[in-house]
């Protein structure tokens, strides 16, 4: 493939996925300017690595989300800050208010946020970004075979976090294990 | 609540942030700044680096006194020199043609006339120098690890002159209705590490 073809293909894959990629950051980074910077870092990093981008469309999409995941994990946005186009994008969003989180589902979102970073990311990739579990495994670089049992355990954990805490009886003596003391 | 209901609930918690207006424009601007401005620039510069590598061995430290003559014994289409304090860094530029554009073609004549008339000493290279310095700082190896490249001011200036001159040449040819893809812009350099 010629350099021009490679460039055009890369630009087309980015264009086809840009909304989802940008939302990926907006769903995880509260500040819109920071999300814009992360998005810029993603574009720059993906271009630098574009020769590793898989040929097949779905694989290329997952590869891009893998790059996005790595950008998110890294606290450094060193590349993006050197690019005036990224600075311009971030500056434009600096005055934009953060996206208000909906009241609906707050408790469950908080429960997801309280999971380990890896488990929370798995839940978000599958239930927020719409990836199948084996695709999420590829993005996170984990074995798909271990994912099913891990998801079962994560869901159980979330259910526990959401369960109402049993109210303390007025008289502790009514609880056999306590009264035995 | 069964599993299906719980999964539905998980999906419902997904924030649905609106995309900012102008996202496509920002993407285009970022990619335009990231990707080589022209694929041909990359090709020609790469070819130029190869040429420089090949030609360095045959050169001598002394710069030829006459016009466009180079220390390597051939005549350049234009030459440029800059001092790094200790020595003179010299660069000779030549244009090359491909895909059927021979030396006697109109495009060849137009290119040589334009390149020969360029005053390389007075080219405004400030922005290009800044871009080169930035890309040196953020250079990455094949694994994506940042490995900054160290270059002296003279080296940066030399590369910037090369790139600005080649861009100007391609833009001129395009404006004149020629296909710039047929023209390569090569550099042979000495004394600046290139």
Characterization of the model:
The complex is a heterodimer of chains A (181) and B (194). Chain A is an all-alpha fold. Chain A is 66% helix and 0% strand. Chain A starts with a helix and ends with a helix. Chain B has one domain (38-190). Chain B has helices spanning 3-12, 23-34, 39-56, 106-117, 126-137, 153-175; strands at 78-83, 88-97, 183-190. In chain B, strands 1-2-3 form a three-stranded antiparallel sheet. In chain B, strand 1 and strand 2 form a beta hairpin. The chains are: A mainly alpha (181), B alpha+beta (194). At the A-B interface, helix 1, helix 2, helix 4, helix 5 and helix 6 of A face helix 1, helix 2 and helix 3 of B.
Spans where pLDDT lies below 50 across 5 or more residues of chain A = 169-181
Structural Rg of chain B: 23 Å
Helix-strand string of chain A: HHHHHHHHH
* Structural class determined from secondary elements of chain B: alpha+beta
Which oligomeric form is depicted? heterodimer
- According to CATH, what is the topology of the largest domain in chain A? Rna Polymerase Sigma Factor, Chain: A
Chain-wise SSE layout:
The complex is a heterodimer of chains A (181) and B (194).
Chain A: H1 3-26, H2 32-48, H3 57-73, H4 84-94, H5 106-113, H6 117-128, H7 133-140, H8 144-162, H9 176-179
Helix pairs in contact in A: 1-2, 1-3, 2-3, 2-4, 3-7, 7-8
Chain B: H1 3-12, H2 23-34, H3 39-56, E1 78-83, E2 88-97, H4 106-117, H5 126-137, H6 153-175, E3 183-190
Antiparallel strand pairs in B: 1-2, 2-3
List keywords for this structure.
heterodimer, A: 181 residues, mainly alpha, Rna Polymerase Sigma Factor, Chain: A, Arc Repressor Mutant, subunit A, 2 domains, 0% strand, disordered C terminus, B: 194 residues, alpha+beta, 3-stranded antiparallel sheet, 6 helices
Short recap of the structure:
The complex is a heterodimer of chains A (181) and B (194). With 181 residues, chain A is an all-alpha fold. Chain A is 66% helix and 0% strand.
């Amino acid at each position: 493939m010629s350099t021009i073809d490679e460039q055009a293909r890369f630009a087309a894959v980015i264009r086809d996925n840009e909304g989802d990629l940008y939302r990926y950051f907006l769903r995880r980074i509260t500040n819109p300017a920071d999300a814009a910077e992360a998005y810029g870092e993603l574009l720059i990093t993906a271009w630098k690595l574009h020769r590793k981008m898989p040929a097949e469309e779905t694989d290329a999409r997952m590869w891009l989300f893998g790059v996005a995941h790595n950008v998110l994990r890294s606290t450094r946005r060193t590349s993006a800050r050197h690019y005036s186009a990224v600075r311009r994008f971030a500056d434009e969003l600096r005055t934009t208010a953060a996206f208000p989180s909906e009241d609906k589902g707050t408790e469950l979102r908080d429960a997801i946020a309280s999971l380990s970073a890896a488990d929370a990311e798995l839940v978000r990739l599958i239930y927020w970004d719409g990836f199948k579990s084996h695709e999420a495994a590829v993005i996170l670089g984990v074995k798909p075979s271990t994912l099913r049992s891990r998801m079962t355990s994560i869901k159980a954990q979330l259910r526990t976090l959401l369960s109402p805490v049993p109210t303390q009886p007025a008289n502790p003596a009514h609880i056999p294990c306590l009264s035995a003391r | 609540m069964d599993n299906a209901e719980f999964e539905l609930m998980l999906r419902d918690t997904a924030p649905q942030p609106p995309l900012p207006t102008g996202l496509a424009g920002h993407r285009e601007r970022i990619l335009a700044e990231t990707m080589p401005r022209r694929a041909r620039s990359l090709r020609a510069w790469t070819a130029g680096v190869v040429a420089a590598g090949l030609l360095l061995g045959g050169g001598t430290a002394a710069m030829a006194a006459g016009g466009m003559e180079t220390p390597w014994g051939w005549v350049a289409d234009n030459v440029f020199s800059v001092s790094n304090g200790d020595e003179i860094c010299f660069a000779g530029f030549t244009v090359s043609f491909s895909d059927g554009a021979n030396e006697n073609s109109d495009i060849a004549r137009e290119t040589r006339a334009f390149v020969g008339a360029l005053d390389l000493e007075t080219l405004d290279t400030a922005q290009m120098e800044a871009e080169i310095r930035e890309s040196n700082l953020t250079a990455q190896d094949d694994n994506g690890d940042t490995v900054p490249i160290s270059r002296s001011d003279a080296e940066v200036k030399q590369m910037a002159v090369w790139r600005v001159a080649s861009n100007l040449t391609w833009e001129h040819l395009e404006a004149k209705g020629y296909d710039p893809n047929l023209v390569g812009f090569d550099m042979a350099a000495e004394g600046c590490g290139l």
